[in-house]
Design brief:
- There is one protein chain.
- The chain contains 13 helices and 27 strands.
- With 580 residues, it is of the alpha/beta class.
- The protein folds into two domains: 12-260, Rossmann fold (3-Layer(aba) Sandwich), CATH 3.40.50.620; 343-559, Ribosomal Protein L25, Chain P, CATH 2.40.240.
- The longest helix has 26 residues, at 554-579.
- Bound molecules: adenosine-5'-triphosphate (ATP) and magnesium ion.
Length: 580
């Protein structure tokens, strides 16, 4: 598939909306919402939900509300609210005037709770959270009715008022829905609607000391905003019964809850608790560490919003849990950058080469297109060439295996855009480490071909030594070295952190045109990957580049090899067993 955004593929939610529009169920309205809890930064899983909710609103001429689900004052902070709004905007979506907070509805929710009490549908329970849990029953056993379940409406109203007035300590009492302690769906066994929390709320201050629970708040917030399709992840499937129950009992506007499968991505963790732990305990350098699959991290790494949206579009929306291979995210990034990033040359791990027959002090300039596939698309720059240049250390082998087409003693290669050179001498230090190569060049091969039509197999990139721009290059890789670090029962996911997820190369040498690279620019360093001039650390004259992604999927090979080795070890073990 080419880069750019494709026509949205259809999915079961689109089918529901189209059917609703045909039948006139919502009068043609499509109103969705994105309801984050402001207790952490957004990650790639949230991006899926954002693209889905805002995308549906966009495609059906509706709107998507931004609503902060701020019902837990203990864990929530303004910092998170600000970052979430910034991240959604960065992803390319806008809620216009439709910014809401669940806390805006606290008065209304309180009145709804009073109504349920008056209707005999809710009661104040004096049991502790532990007691309530202990009497909830199991999937095969019904729960026990609370000893306080039969309180009169008057007593309940009085106690709830006093909970509201702050007469009781945290945890002393809760308000529960009166549904059915033998209900086959555990969510319906008299769920808690309100609890006492004598904590200051970042928006309502000290006004409240009782706070509504998620299940009670969410459906009524959706109702108040006249949402049509309330889209959530599959874990809330059982909660749908309660969503519907609350709205039905109160006889208010009733949106439809629809569940879809959350995004699970291999080689990363996504729970906010774990992301927070990685940041707080210093395993990464912050929420925007380029190895984190937070929106900030991906942004700092150099992913574009278009790439993330393309990924979300391609993985689609389904009803069955599944794991997505990181390959697909990286592929979307490659496909997006392929037509956007100019090609340049940068040597990450330099080895110096001197051309013995090239005139000392001579400098030639080659005009090189930024986008060789379609040169007019991005224009060109001039690249200086001289007697001394750098090549990638890994592009030379003293004793190469058969299919090594790069430089080796006596071998000839093509220098990209320049000349053919032949290695004539290898210079080493006391420890036997190669420090420099000597070579000759063929003046007739200017531009990369020769009159005699002689072929060379390899083409390597290079940077003229006197013109090179020293740079710091950071190679980022997957944060974990196994596909599902959280899946091991008796091992901590942090044991699987990839020790090579960040490799800093302080001595990279870039072509002269990159001296003035501006923070935020993206390039392809030929043969090495896509790179991003770090928006914080890069300054003109002092380039710092992050590798966004390699050009090919290097992990596919590694994993395949791991599998082969495991299989071989198993075969060996079997053989040994037979013998023994
Ligand atoms: P966590 O479990 O890490 O705390 P959360 O799901 O509680 O995350 P919220 O802030 O409540 O985080 O999420 C906001 C919205 O994003 C919700 O509608 C939720 O369904 C959606 N969302 C969160 N994670 C994913 C995911 N991995 N895939 C798809 N949607 C997600
Ligand atoms: Mg949540």
């Amino acid at each position: 598939m080419a880069s750019g955004e494709s026509v949205p593929s259809t999915n079961f939610i689109r089918n529901i909306i189209e059917e609703d529009n045909r039948s006139g169920k919502w009068g043609g309205r499509v109103v969705t919402r994105f309801p984050p809890e402001p207790n952490g930064y957004l990650h790639i899983g949230h991006a899926k939900s954002i693209c889905l909710n805002f995308g549906l609103a966009r495609d059906y001429g509706g709107r998507c509300h931004m609503r902060f689900d701020d019902t837990n004052p203990v864990k929530e902070e303004q910092e998170y609210i600000d970052s979430i709004m910034e991240d959604v905007h960065w992803l390319g979506f806008d809620w216009g005037e439709h910014l809401y907070y669940a806390s805006d509805y606290f008065d209304q929710l309180y009145r709804h709770a009073l109504q349920l009490i008056k209707d005999g549908k809710a009661y104040v329970d004096d049991q502790s959270a532990e007691e309530i849990r202990a009497h909830r029953g199991t999937l095969t056993q019904p729960g026990d009715n609370s000893p306080y379940r039969q309180r009169s409406v008057e007593e309940n109203l009085d106690l709830f008022q006093r909970m509201h007035d702050g007469e009781f300590p945290d945890g002393a009492r809760v308000l529960r829905a009166k549904i059915d302690m033998a209900h086959p769906n555990l969510v319906m066994r008299d769920p808690t609607l309100y609890r006492i929390r004598k904590v200051r709320h970042h928006r309502t201050g000290d006004k409240w000391c009782i706070y509504p629970m998620y299940d009670f708040t969410h459906c009524l917030s959706d109702s108040a905003e006249r949402i049509t399709h309330s889209i959530c992840t599959l874990e809330f499937e059982d909660n749908r019964a309660l969503y519907d129950w609350v709205l039905d009992q109160l006889g208010v506007y009733h949106p439809q809850q629809i569940e879809f499968a959350r995004l699970n991505l291999e080689f990363t963790v996504m729970s906010k608790r774990r992301l927070l732990e990685l940041v707080k305990e210093g395993y990464v350098q912050g929420w925007d560490d380029p190895r984190m699959l937070t929106i900030r991290g991906m942004r700092r790494r150099g992913y574009t919003p278009e790439a993330i949206r393309l990924f979300c579009e391609r993985i689609g929306v389904g009803k069955k849990e599944s794991w997505i291979d990181m390959y697909w995210l990286e592929k979307a990034v490659r496909d997006d950058l392929n037509t956007k990033a100019p090609r340049v040359m940068g040597v990450l791990d330099p080895l110096k080469v001197v051309i013995e027959n090239y005139p000392d002090g001579q400098v030639e300039e080659f005009s090189c297109p930024y986008y060789p596939d379609d040169p007019p698309a991005m224009g060109q720059r001039r690249v200086p060439f001289s007697r001394e240049f750098y090549i990638e250390r890994e592009d030379f082998m003293e004793d190469p295996p058969k299919k090594f087409w790069r430089l080796a003693p006596g071998r000839e290669v093509r220098l990209r855009w320049a000349y053919y050179v032949t290695c004539t001498q290898v210079i080493k230090d006391d420890q036997g480490r190669v420090t420099e190569l000597r070579c000759t060049y063929d003046p007739a091969s200017k531009g990369g071909g020769t009159p005699d039509g002689r072929k060379v197999q390899g083409t390597i990139h290079w940077v003229s030594a006197p013109h090179a721009v020293p740079a710091t290059v950071r190679l980022y890789d997957r944060l974990f070295s196994v596909p599902n670090p959280g899946a091991y029962k008796d091992r901590d996911y942090k044991e699987f952190l990839n020790p090579e997820s960040l490799v800093t190369l302080p001595g990279a040498m870039l072509e002269a045109s990159l001296a003035q690279a501006q923070p935020g620019q993206r390039y392809q360093f030929e043969r090495k990957g896509f790179f991003y001039a770090d928006p914080v650390d890069c300054a003109p004259g002092r380039p710092v580049f992050n590798r966004i992604v390699t050009l090919k999927d290097s992990w596919a090979k590694i994993l395949e090899q791991q599998k082969r080795e495991e299989a071989r070890a198993q075969r060996e073990a079997k053989k040994q067993k037979k013998k023994g």
